[in-house]
Amino acid sequence: MIALLMKNKTRLFFIFLFIVLAGCGRTIPETYNYRYDQDSYDHQVKAGEVLGSLSLDRETEDRILALDPENITEKDVRDILSHAPAPRIINIHGGMSSVYIVMVSLSKFLMSMGYPENSLRNPADGTYSYSCLKNVKEFTGIIGWYYEREGMMPIIIGHSQGGMMVIRILHYLAGSEDSDLMVWNPVTETQEDRHTIIDPLEHKERPVAGLKLGYASSIAAGGTARLLLNQWDVVFRLRKIPDTVEEFSGFYLSWDSAGTDYLGLIDAPNRYRPVGSAGVRTIKLSGGSHFSLPDVQHLAEQPETREWVDEYRPDNEQIMNDEIIDKEYNIPLAGELWYHIKKYLAIEAQRMIRARRDMEKWQAVN
Asked: Would you call 73 exposed, middle or buried from its count of C-beta atoms within 10 A (0-12, 13-18, 19+)?
């Protein structure tokens, strides 16, 4: 009897591995009438080109610079930041094909809250999320490509195995030699024969390795997915966040064998911690399922939940005791993500404006 039980457990385990790996690389059968509308992807970017193309009047720039990134309101997003470019958001899904659908839900939630659609879609085909089976060096190369051409550091968000990929990206940016990471064009989906970019804010050549993101997040990463061969290079550093990101949020769920260590019953193994100076937060979610955590589109469509999300602040302990959390288990995830996304929407816009003004001052005296 024991031998039969063990045999069945082994069989179920390998079935689980097959489903996860097969679903992770599966193409989503959708058609989009979408094209990347930036025309700079087909030529080498020159120093000063990105800042020179920033089309904001002085009054709008002043209004953006006056914003407090830690207290961005819905009105600020609608009336001020909507006039500025936005950081590219790179979503990474994992597991079954249904997990892609919840990343669509997350993207549509962000769009409903005021984030521009063009900064959420994959420029190659219009999809809202990348597969977790892409090579980690492809992701680092895409990050460098976007930063060089858009002047803003992308935001990366991953769910399940996609969340593990987020951690791998941060560690590869931190630990790679300058020549290890090549630039990758997400429009043509090809690697470029170079490992450096022109820094759009500092106007000088620099390697992709060592780039520092503003914000990143990992949702339900860990658990049995640690056993998959494609995750072994991150197994022993999954909860360690290097200095290649300024702020990071990690989410985990109790009783989640697919994405939580020790079923989430022990907090310490699921808590993310900085290797150095990165600001790291760990959020334990109280309900829901592993596969539905990023399904938050409806929260932007209901007045009560939309207001809660917009007023969310990480340091507001009272809001976390609100009874609405008992009805909407994933609303803390939506609040945490939206708070940091609109924060870095402001920060990245302010960085570009300050850099352009510095460039104009230098040009005036030279």
From this structure: middle
How many residues belong to the chain? 366
pLDDT category at 305 given cuts 50, 70, 90 is: very high
How far apart CA 17 and CA 129 sit, in angstroms, is: 22
Which residue type, as a one-letter code, is found at position 278?
A
Is-contact 325 332, C-beta < 8 A?
yes
62, exposed or middle or buried, with CB in 10 Å at 0-12, 13-18, 19+? exposed
Residue 145 CA to residue 40 CA, distance in Å, equals 11
Residue 119 has pLDDT above 80, yes or no: yes
- Axis-axis angle for helices 331-364, 97-112 (nearest 10): 60
In single-letter form, the type of residue at position 271 comes to R
Task: Output Rg (C-alpha) for the chain, integer angstroms.
Answer: 21
Distance CA 26, CA 95 (A): 9
Contact 260, 223 (CB under 8 A): yes
Tell me which H or E stretch contains 246.
strand 245-253
64 contact partners, CB below 8 Å, separation of at least 6:
56, 80, 81, 84, 346, 349, 350, 353
- Judging by DSSP bridges, how do beta strands 130-131 and 184-185 pair with one another? unpaired
What rounded mean pLDDT belongs to the chain?
A: 86
Q: What is the mean pLDDT of residues 206-235?
A: 83
Residue 93: CB atoms within 10 Å: 32
Distances (CA, A) of 68 to 27, 64, 154, 334: 41, 9, 20, 21
Residues 128, 131, 135, 136, CA torsion sign? positive
Q: Tell me the domains of the chain and their CATH numbers.
A: 2-23+86-300 (3.40.50.1820)
